[in-house]
């Protein structure tokens, strides 16, 4: 029996789920055929699916009835597109040395896909582990969702193209900035971990957060292995290895305001919804909204040269669902990019579910600080704009 003579029976739903993660990693416009392929390997009652874009390497093992052991590579997208449309509970994957094609067999359907030999798929070298620890998936997801949105997209500032991930004083941190805003998320470590600091790429975090948020994984822990230039995540039967960003993240502590004259406490969703409505009038990414705070109400306004103007007020209220409290006799007017404010508020809603947020201001030209009572060490800082 040849190396490629693979034959297994696998649950369609389970395979579809794994292929979704694999297809997300694979580069869609790859000129190297092998990198658009997924490697399928059957052994010891498992089907292993391996996908890579050379920055990220993803391995998943799923339960399967292995009739013949073997390995092959096939187009990730084509396999994913076919399997997710098959309605049957189980399917058969079969490769014979005679045709070297992958046969996908359902109850009343069959497909034959062209393949490449498994030995043409890129191999993964072992990483020289310098630090390893475990963290609850829920905590890791919370930190990613609290920082990923403010990563810089400016490729010339490569050290800001990811999230700074580090441990200090028995606390685990993630931080990101694009120069206009800063996001920091913190969780306490449950056991002693050596201090370290690495920069995780945006793509890596986008992929691992999908996997860890899966209902099968979210209640578990993810084990993290670090080397000088790579990181490995292991959870359940899933392993992801990724390159780290080679650079030094800036010392951001001095960017966090420590002096504030004004404080607004408001319902998180209420503020997010009002900003979203008012910002509809702005079409240019450089246009701003203006917040005017007074002891009686919060007024949010915007104007767009091509569309007109918008205004919405939120009256002072102690009601939980309409909470809006401003603690200063003097009023304050300050402008912000609505996208930055909305993304910070949505991050709070998604990552921590905090229903109220505190906004701190020094004056109309200084950065604003956002914090919640629920996670007081998590901070969001946004630079104002002229209005």
Summarize this structure briefly.
The chain is of the alpha+beta class. It has helices at residues 12-25, 76-83, 137-145, 202-212, 268-278, 338-351, and strands at residues 7-11, 37-43, 46-52, 56-63, 65-68, 70-75, 90-95, 101-105, 110-117, 131-136, 162-168, 171-177, 181-188, 196-201, 221-226, 230-235, 238-243, 262-267, 289-293, 297-304, 308-315, 324-326, 332-336, 356-361, 368-371, 379-382. It folds into 3 domains: 7-120, Roll (DNA Polymerase III, Chain A, domain 2); 131-243, DNA Polymerase III, Chain A, domain 2, CATH 3.10.150.10; 256-382, DNA Polymerase III, Chain A, domain 2, CATH 3.10.150.
Name of the level-1 CATH class of the largest domain: Alpha Beta
Figure out the total of helices.
6
Distance between the termini: 74 Å
Overall average pLDDT: 94
- Spatial order of the strands in the main sheet? 5-1-7-8-9-6-2-3-4-17-16-15-10
CATH homologous group name of the largest domain:
DNA Polymerase III, subunit A, domain 2
Question: Percent of residues in helical segments?
Answer: 10-25%
Architecture of the largest domain, according to CATH?
Roll
The low-confidence parts are none
Biggest beta-sheet profile: 13 strands, antiparallel
Domain module tally: 3
Q: Which percent band covers the strand fraction?
A: 35-45%
């Amino acid at each position: 029996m040849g190396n490629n003579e693979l034959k297994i029976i696998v649950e369609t739903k389970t395979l579809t789920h794994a292929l979704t993660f694999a297809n997300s990693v694979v580069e869609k416009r790859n000129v190297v055929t092998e990198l658009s392929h997924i490697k399928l390997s059957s052994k010891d009652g498992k089907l292993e699916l391996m996908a890579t874009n050379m920055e990220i390497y993803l391995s998943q093992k799923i339960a399967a009835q292995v009739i013949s052991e073997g390995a092959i590579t096939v187009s990730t997208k084509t396999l994913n597109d076919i399997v997710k449309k098959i309605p049957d509970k189980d399917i058969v994957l079969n490769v014979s040395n005679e045709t070297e094609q992958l046969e996908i067999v359902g109850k009343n359907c069959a497909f034959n896909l062209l393949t490449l030999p498994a030995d043409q798929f890129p191999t993964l070298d072992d990483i020289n582990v310098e630090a390893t620890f475990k963290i609850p998936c829920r905590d890791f997801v919370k930190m990613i969702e609290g920082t990923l949105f403010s990563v810089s997209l400016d490729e010339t500032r490569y050290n800001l193209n990811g999230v700074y991930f580090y441990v200090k004083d028995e606390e685990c941190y993630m931080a990101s900035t694009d120069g206009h805003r800063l996001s920091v998320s913190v969780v306490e470590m449950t056991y002693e971990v050596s201090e370290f600091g690495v920069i995780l790429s945006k793509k890596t975090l986008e992929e691992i957060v999908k996997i860890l948020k899966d209902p099968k994984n979210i209640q578990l822990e993810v084990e993290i292995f670090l080397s000088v230039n790579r990181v490995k995540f292991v959870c359940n039967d899933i392993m992801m290895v990724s390159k780290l960003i080679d650079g030094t993240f800036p010392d951001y502590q001095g960017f966090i305001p420590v002096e504030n004259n004004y404080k607004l406490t408001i319902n998180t969703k209420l503020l997010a919804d009002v900003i979203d409505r008012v910002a509809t009038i702005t079409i240019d990414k450089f246009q701003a909204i203006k917040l005017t705070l007074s002891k009686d109400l919060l007024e949010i306004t915007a104007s767009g040269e091509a569309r007109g103007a918008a205004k919405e007020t939120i009256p002072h209220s102690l009601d939980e669902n309409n909470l809006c409290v401003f603690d200063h006799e003097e009023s304050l007017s300050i402008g912000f990019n609505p996208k930055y404010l909305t993304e910070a508020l949505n991050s709070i809603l998604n990552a921590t579910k905090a229903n109220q947020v505190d906004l701190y201001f020094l004056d109309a030209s200084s950065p604003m600080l956002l914090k919640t009572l629920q996670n007081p060490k998590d901070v969001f800082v946004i630079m104002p704009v002229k209005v």
